Amino acid sequence: MNFNLGIAAIMRYADQVAADTEIVSLFADERVHRYTYRQAFVRVRQLANVLDELNVPGDARVGTLAWNDHRHFELHYAVPASGRVCHTINPKLFAEQVSYIIRHAQDDVLFIDPQFLPLVESLQAELTSVRHFVALCAHDELPPSGLPNLLCYEDLLATAADSYTWPELDEQRACGLCYTSGTTGNPKGVLTSHRSTVLHGMAQNMADQVGLRAIDVVMPLVPMFHVNAWGMPYNAAMVGAKLVLPGPRVGDAGAMVKLIRDEAVTFSLGVPTLWANISQYLNASDQQIPSLKRAVTGGAACPLSLIQAMGQHGVALENGWGMTEMNPMGSYNRYQPWYDTMDEEDRDRQVLKSGRALFGVEMRLLDEAGEPVAHDGIASGALQVRGPWVSSGYYGQDTRDGWFDTGDVATLDSHGYMQITDRIKDLIKSGGEWICSVEIENAVMAHPGIAQAAVIGVEHPRWSERPLLVIVCRDPEHAPDHRELIAFLEGKIPKWWLPDACEYLRELPHTATGKVSKKSLREQFANYAWP
Ligand code: ADP
């Protein structure tokens, strides 16, 4: 049959197989909201009626500035299933970027968590495309606001009908829009289709990939504004798994550990920084999270020391690689039984890999001359991908089918395991040879005194660039000096990769998606005087 894949089909399915399965949300004030998929979809239909009543055009972009909670979940369904585009906006970006993104997308309506109302108020004069502002709260939670005709989400839903006939949509129709944080220039919009979102979810749910099951309790720490929490609002519903949405307290490791314990979470996802916080908290509080068996680390390279630390807490931290332009997952490293037969060193190397491509994603590596690179797990090259959920261009720009340049450098081994060795812009070119910052960081992080590490290339009069090590120590009173660190690194990385100097910070700068910002570090150490 010629049957369109779409968000409405995911909803129909979850309503049938998981009507009574829960969706739990934690609020800022520690209140917990819980309801079932069936109850959620009643409100999703009400929300679709609200969008119609507000005369939001059938193909409009609907902007959200929201945390992971049940209302944001409802938007993820009502907006695309009614034909509109769910445009999730990262509220942690600079105000000018948020303004640029809303203007570029020409959002018709904005759904805003009350916490972000001051941000939107400060930009309101520029946001000429926006006809409606809706606060994501109940009537008695509505703060005083300077926004014209600020509407209240719960008031709107309270009077809306709860039946709705979902339109039959072409599967190639736009469904979501997410801007990458844009390490250079303005943020770029990535538009995803219904087809792309459904196929991505099906592939991610295969057993050797993320492989969610109905018995899972899934808690995305990664925000829905970061590529739909890596697909979770859709992919959990696709198997009828319980969802736990951590809300604004996601950076509070104590609150997250309590939530994992209270809801018996079995699977979670987040960037390495969040896992480092949780691991430290577990060590300090001597608590356990026995239900959590597996979790994804993604979005940035994860040091081996963190995978090992989470392993000691009983959690297999599995590497997932992807990017906004891939909706977002491209590869996954699910722990395989045969890893247990490897010797320790090989196993360490294996779990660090970025995993095998999901079915549907094709990968190739090219050298500087554009020639194919051997898949021997050693030679590295520029990673290119193609497939039905790889973006063909950016919103408002030309599109092109074919291979998409990821901007990452990687190796591929004979079993299809890919490993990201660096981002092209983070590679260090010293005396004409490339140095991989990620490998040095990984080696440094094995030192017990180091809490965080980043290696950047800094201009050097003789070698054009040399690696500078920037670290945060666990105990600044007993910080290892440069000489001790070099002695520690010798033999673990090539001799000419050894960082020429070391700088100490109290905290590393992070991007709006929680990754270490090497761009900020490069700016900070731009005129560095080598010792
Ligand atoms: P942003 O540029 O806004 O951070 P993305 O979240 O799309 O946007 O970032 C994608 C990039 O993050 C990838 O190209 C890659 O460099 C990095 N990345 C993602 N997952 C991993 C991973 N598991 N290991 C190493 N790097 C990763």
Please give a structural write-up.
It is a single chain. The mean pLDDT is 95. The strands form four sheets. This protein has a 13-stranded mixed sheet with strand order 2-1-11-10-12-13-14-15-16-20-19-18-17, with helices on both faces. The protein is an alpha/beta fold. Helix 1 crosses helix 8 (227-239), helix 2 packs across helix 3 (70-81) and helix 7 crosses helix 8. The protein is built from 15 helices and 25 strands. Among the domains are: 7-250, Rossmann fold, CATH 3.40.50; 427-524, GMP Synthetase, Chain A, domain 3, CATH 3.30.300. The protein binds adenosine-5'-diphosphate (ADP).
What descriptive keywords fit this protein?
single chain, 531 residues, alpha/beta, Rossmann fold, GMP Synthetase, Chain A, domain 3, seven-stranded mixed beta sheet, 15 helices, 25 strands, 25% strand, globular, binds adenosine-5'-diphosphate
Strand order of the largest sheet: 2-1-11-10-12-13-14-15-16-20-19-18-17
Helix tally equals: 15
Report the top-level CATH class of the domain at 7-250: Alpha Beta
User: Could you name the ranges where pLDDT drops below 50 across 5 or more consecutive residues?
Assistant: none
User: What is the arithmetic mean of pLDDT?
Assistant: 95
The CATH architecture designation of the domain at 7-250 is 3-Layer(aba) Sandwich
- Overall body shape: globular
Helix/strand-derived category reads alpha/beta
Q: In percent terms, what proportion of residues is strand?
A: 15-25%
Using the CA coordinates, give the radius of gyration: 23 Å
- Give the names of the bound compounds: adenosine-5'-diphosphate
The number of E-state strands comes to 25
Please describe the biggest sheet, giving its number of strands, its sense, and whether it closes into a barrel. 13 strands, mixed
Q: What share of residues is helical?
A: 25-40%
For CATH, the homologous superfamily of the domain at 7-250 is named as ANL, N-terminal domain
Question: What is the terminal-to-terminal distance?
Answer: 70 Å
Say what the CATH topology of the domain at 7-250 is.
Answer: Rossmann fold
